[in-house]
Design a protein that fits this description.
Layout lengths: L3 E5 L5 H11 L2 H6 E7 L5 H9 L2 E4 L5 H8 L4 E4 L3 H4 L2 H17 L4 E5 L4 H4 L8 H16 L3 E6 L1 E2 L8 E3 L5 E5 L7 E4 L1 H14 L1 H4 L3 E4 L2 E3 L1 H11 L8 E4 L2 H10 L4 H16 L9 H4 L9 H6 L9
Helix pairs in contact: 1-9, 4-6, 6-8, 12-13
């Protein structure tokens, strides 16, 4: 049987790299799919490691339409992800996404999996108008649907990697705290991007007929800040004795971001991103059951992720 080509854009990033590895390390998926990994520089170490796994590594650039035609030609499926944070521009991200869609349409791709997110401005009826890294991807999803291109949409949750050493960290003298600008009971859909993107997207390609036209939410479960901290305490009872949750006022959160060099528009964008969860729901209040049902393996639990994270190494 001739293997169908799955082309992965952004193959050396967290999401794309996970997709490449998950397909190639799975006997069922790798027997059906030939993986073509697209990167701007096939000579870099991260690209070479994908080649060593068995991927066909080719050059391609989201800003170069001709290179995308060459990379996508002959593909049955394409996984596409863009990086808002590279240019801090929703307009640039939308242009890249629409170019990918146009190329997939022209090349006769049978299944585009677009890494999308909800349109927060619409979901919140304009209350949260500045979450551009969500809205730009949502606009591309709308464009893809308008083309009649066979497609499905993967919506990654809140990255677990945002917690260890960042929102959940040692505040000094061994006192750990989880500090977020949201109430203690806010529902956060936690997601291990590097470990689990591939689990979901691989399942989407394997269950094509079930997912075409649909959204799949990439998250293990909804966790509240209290649950996140409680499980941290269970893992590290000695360290966790004095650990506490702190609900940050919005201006304090923005001040912390400012101290890292983030400009004011990004500070406000990230605050609105955090407000999304308690006020409107990261996924608009939708459950995760139907998305989890397509998986052929367990997603990574927060406790498992935390146990193995370098930021928590040596804690007792």
């Amino acid at each position: 049987m001739t293997k169908r080509i799955i082309t992965v854009l952004g193959s050396t990033g967290k999401q794309g790299g996970s997709v490449v590895k998950s397909i190639l390390e799975d006997s069922t998926a790798s027997s059906q799919f030939h993986v073509r990994a697209v990167t701007r520089d096939p000579s870099k170490d991260s690209a070479r490691s994908l080649s060593a796994l068995g991927a066909e590594v080719v050059a391609g650039d989201l800003n170069d339409k001709d290179s995308l035609h060459a990379a996508i030609q002959g593909s049955h499926g394409v996984f596409a992800v863009t990086n808002f944070w590279e240019l801090f521009s929703a307009e640039a991200e939308e242009a890249q996404g629409k170019t990918v869609a146009d190329v997939c349409k022209a090349e006769g791709v049978k299944h585009l999996v677009w890494s999308s997110l909800l349109n927060v401005k619409k979901l919140s009826n304009g209350v949260l108008p500045d979450v551009h890294h969500f809205d730009g991807k949502a606009n591309v999803e709308e464009y893809i649907r308008s083309l009649g291109l066979p497609s499905s949409f993967f919506l990654p949750g809140f990255y677990m990697s945002n917690l260890p050493g960042m929102s959940l960290r040692d505040m000094g003298e061994g006192k750990w705290a989880l500090a977020l600008p949201m109430p203690a009971n806010s529902p956060i859909p936690l997601f291990d991007a590097e470990g689990d993107t591939g689990k979901f997207v691989k399942a989407m390609f394997l269950n094509e007929e079930k997912v075409l036209g649909k959204r799949i939410y990439g998250a293990t479960a909804y966790y509240t800040p209290v649950e996140i901290l409680d499980q941290f305490k269970e893992l590290f009872p000695e360290t966790g004795k004095q650990a506490a949750f702190s609900q940050l006022p919005g201006e304090v959160f923005k001040g912390i971001m400012a101290s890292t060099g983030a400009p004011e528009p990004i500070q406000e964008e990230m605050l609105q991103n955090m407000r999304l969860m308690p006020e409107f729901g990261y996924y608009g209040g939708d459950g995760l059951e139907s998305s989890l049902a397509i998986l052929g393996e367990e997603p990574t639990a927060w406790k498992e992720y935390a146990k193995n994270h370098q930021a928590f190494a040596g804690l007792k």
